[in-house]
Specification:
mainly alpha; 3 domains
Length: about 350
């Protein structure tokens, strides 16, 4: 009992020392005596407290945010291409405005972002609303709406402070085991495996991304379409090489994420629009099956059509008649599909839509 009381008092003193400026403790020895055990406990408590202080610093202070941004740029390199950087600026402006309409705290820590030189298919948001897109992502996604979905998902993590919460979970054991190096270096070097994100966090970020995209100029159907594209490229395994917006085997499957968005699109349309196996239906009647085009599969294009129809119903355009402008089928002021030579005749689609809408 006396040893337990002394240990609690020693830990309290050690924590107090950290809060008032920090102390340096020698590493605990490998001996199993009471003194070495107490030293290990104190050292671990001090390391954990210091880790939390540093995470807060890099997450919430402007100085810390910029230091981490510089560290990330040094770790992963900077890739610059005029058109891609302009596109990134546009996406962040659109998404920030969309998020701000429902969560004004986005303006408290404006997102920092850059394209890095990593060639894998991914993007990340870490502490301090610092974000980066791998240049490799552009080898698989060329549609701005789908790229916006990726970034909206990452911003969902940022708005809910998932990086800070996950970092404490993932970095904690390593720092307690060996308190050498710096938290800054550990964060930058372990972005892909040190985020500590969980399945509930992934679902929350997915659902927030839908809200953000729905309030932006982008097609809400891109939320499901991007996951259909991932499935087309890599299958249904969330831990595959195409691990965009995922990082652990317990994360949702690609199909589950696509279907979650498809359900939300049906709800947006008031239950009128569905997609199954690339077939778009309105009020349970088949409207069309888009042809593959522009590097997209039939199923991927179907979700874009679904998003346009859902937006038309949500915004009241379905009260107007469907018509054709050029080769684009319109429902009121809302474009529905830009028909290619391999699609059905746009006038036939418009006529059918008027019959079943």
């Amino acid at each position: 009992m006396r040893n337990k009381k002394w240990m609690k008092r020693a830990i309290a003193l050690a924590l107090s020392a950290v809060m008032t400026g920090g102390i340096a403790l020698p590493p605990a020895t490998a001996e199993a005596g009471t003194g070495s055990i107490i030293g290990a406990v104190i050292g671990g408590a001090v390391a954990a407290t210091e880790m939390n202080k540093q995470i807060k610093y890099y997450n919430t202070t402007e100085e810390g945010r910029q230091q981490l941004l510089d560290e990330l740029k040094g770790e992963y390199g900077i890739y610059y291409r005029h058109d891609l950087n302009n596109q990134l600026d546009r996406i962040f402006a659109n998404l920030t405005a969309a998020i701000g309409s429902m969560d004004p705290t986005v303006y408290d820590r404006p997102y920092n972002y850059f394209i890095n030189r990593e060639e894998s298919f991914n993007a990340f948001c870490t502490l301090g609303h610092n974000m980066s897109v791998n240049v490799g992502l552009y080898g698989y996604l060329t549609n701005e709406d789908e790229i916006a979905v990726v970034l909206a998902h990452e911003m969902g993590h940022g708005q809910k402070d998932h990086p800070a919460k996950g970092m404490k979970r993932s970095l904690g054991p390593a720092i307690l085991a060996n308190a050498t190096g710096t938290v800054l270096g550990a964060i930058a070097a372990n972005i892909w495996k040190g985020q500590g994100l969980t399945k509930p966090m992934e679902w929350e970020a997915d659902n927030l991304a839908f809200e953000y995209i729905s309030r932006s100029p982008y097609n809400p159907g891109a939320t499901a379409a991007v996951w259909q594209r991932v499935i087309d490229l890599s299958g249904n395994n969330s831990a595959s090489a195409f691990d965009i917006m995922s990082g652990a085997a317990d994360h949702p499957s690609n199909a589950a994420r696509r279907d979650n968005y498809s359900k939300k699109l049906t709800e947006m349309s008031g239950g009128r629009v569905t997609v199954k196996d690339g077939v778009v239906s309105v009020n349970k009647k088949v409207l069309l099956t888009p042809a593959p085009s522009g590097g997209m599969s039939s199923a991927e294009r179907a979700y874009f059509v679904m998003g346009n129809l859902a937006a038309a119903y949500k915004n009241g355009h379905a009260a107007s008649g469907a018509h054709v402008e050029g080769r684009t089928v319109m429902l009121g002021a809302q474009p529905i599909i830009n028909c290619t030579d391999r699609d059905a005749n746009p006038y036939a689609i418009a006529e059918l839509l008027n019959q079943i809408k």
